[in-house]
Design a protein that fits this description.
290 residues, alpha+beta, 60s Ribosomal Protein L30, Chain: A, 10-stranded mixed sheet, two-stranded antiparallel ribbon, 7 helices, 12 strands, 30% helix
């Protein structure tokens, strides 16, 4: 498998290849929201979105992403200053979309990945010779993986502020019968929260983009409040819980990506990824909570 050298925050580090067998196992505490991983050995034909040497250069990246199921990444493509601002922005967007499509085709899940073209808006310091004359015009041209969020499961034991916790699918109630189903679907969540008295958590509910902004915000807030009330009634200490409805303002899959998907079944699957309920760790105290 082709090797990649990882450059973190612009500082070169001799890291192992991004092969599944070389990825550290166990805790992912070295990965945090906002961390950037620069990908070397990935390049494009000048002025085009054609990969050099080809799609196989992305296989180690796909394997790396699949080996980290708790991380959600953004593919960011950057250009140098040659060419107009508009051309460079559009070019970087096409390149990012090319990488995204290729990785999805290699089995990376839709919910694990998004993409963005930055053009020349985030240039790296230009290399200069001993006389202070710039000699490297391509220093800004790069591809990066940026960690957008860190997700844990309820089976994990270590949690950090800012992390998200995946929970089972929640069945929301619109009548008395569904109220029972909602309580049943929240049973694992209740058990988890009571087992971790050190955590202060936010219940966040999200919708997809269908419907008006105001309707979606109101709907998500009502759902979050409903869950909050049920959990408090089960005996969970109120200061440990907050709730918030986000509507369609924190999409896992952007509206641009959903619209660009022509297959209706795949498009619906993308909408379903955005319709979610999650726990967010706000604080970690000692284990003397109630």
């Amino acid at each position: 498998m082709r090797k990649l050298i990882v450059l973190l925050f612009g500082i070169c580090a001799a890291c192992p290849a991004l092969e599944a067998k070389a990825i550290p196992t166990g805790s992912d505490t070295g990965f945090f929201t906002g961390k950037k991983i620069r990908l070397e050995k990935i390049d494009f034909v000048i002025g085009k979105e054609t990969l050099i040497p080809g799609m196989d250069s992305l296989r180690p990246v796909a394997e790396f992403i699949k080996s980290k199921p708790g991380l959600v990444f953004e593919i960011g493509c950057h250009t140098d200053v040659r060419g107009s601002d508009t051309f460079n922005l559009r070019l970087s967007e096409r390149r990012a979309k090319t990488i995204y499509d290729t990785l999805i085709g290699m089995g990376v899940g839709y919910s694990r990945l998004t993409w963005k073209g930055y053009g020349e808006t985030e240039l790296l310091p230009v290399k200069k010779n001993s006389k202070g004359v710039p000699y490297e015009q391509t220093s800004g041209r790069r591809v990066e993986l940026k960690i957008l969020r860190v997700e844990k499961s309820m089976s994990d034991s270590v949690f950090l502020p800012g992390e998200f916790i995946r929970i089972p699918v929640i069945v929301y109630s619109f009548d008395d019968r569904r109220e029972v189903r909602l309580r049943d679907s929240l049973a694992p969540v209740e058990k988890f929260i009571k087992a971790h008295p050190e955590l202060v958590l936010e219940i966040g509910c999200h919708t997809d983009v269908r419907g008006s902004d105001k309707y979606n915000e109101k709907l998500s807030a009502a759902r979050a409040k409903q869950i909050y009330d049920i959990l408090l009634a089960s005996g969970i200490y109120a200061p440990r819980l907050l709730y918030k409805g986000y509507g369609e303002y924190q999409l896992l899959v952007s509206d641009r990506m959903t619209i660009s998907e022509k297959d209706k079944m795949k498009q619906e699957a993308l909408h379903q990824l955005n319709r979610r309920t999650e726990l967010k760790v706000l604080a970690v105290n000692d284990r003397k909570g109630r």
